[in-house]
Amino acid sequence: MTAGPLAYTTRPVADEQDRAACFQVRKEVFVGEQNVPEEIEYDADALHVIAVAADGTALGTGRLLHGPAAASHTGGVPAVGSLGRLAVSKEARGLGVGAALVRAIEDAARSQGLTAVDLHAQTHALRFYERLGYEPYGPEFMDAGIPHRAMRRTI
Q1: What H or E segment, with its residue span, contains residue 25?
Q2: CA nearest to 66, candidates 111, 25, 26
Q3: DSSP 123
């Protein structure tokens, strides 16, 4: 929970209402703002986290893939999870919601017995993830028409 202008909590998704709220935030950010094809925004095989304001408004979301679902993102390393689809609503940006979601995903990864987390960062977000301890590796690549870099953090 945070104090200040906007109190919120982060937690794993608990039910279908939470899941729908996550996908709504992702639709607003990725489809609406970044023109990512909507059909790639729905993934049931993931552990999702959500940031929720005190009034119940969804502020942000992210997901963790692990095991076989993460293999294509992590080079097939079983002890590495894949953080992805991190999205924060416009009104909640700059308030620490994104960092809190990353930490919640890392906590979920630890609870799954994982020792590291990979992610594919949009290149404009590299510094954000570097501040959280992620290190880029490999060449830049395109995903959904947006330049990305792979990054990893040992947890």
Answers
A1: helix 16-26
A2: 111
A3: G
C-alpha 36/C-alpha 144 separation (Å) is 6
Per-residue pLDDT of 57-76, as tens digits, reads 999 999 999 988 888 888 88
Beta partners for 154? 116
- The secondary structure element, H or E, covering residue 16 is helix 16-26
Burial class (CB in 10 A: 0-12, 13-18, 19+), 134: buried
Closest CA to 97 of 110, 108, 106, 86: 86
The pTM of the whole model exceeds 0.85: yes
Sign, Cα dihedral of 142, 71, 98, 102: negative
Cα–Cα distance between 91 and 45 in angstroms, integer?
A: 28
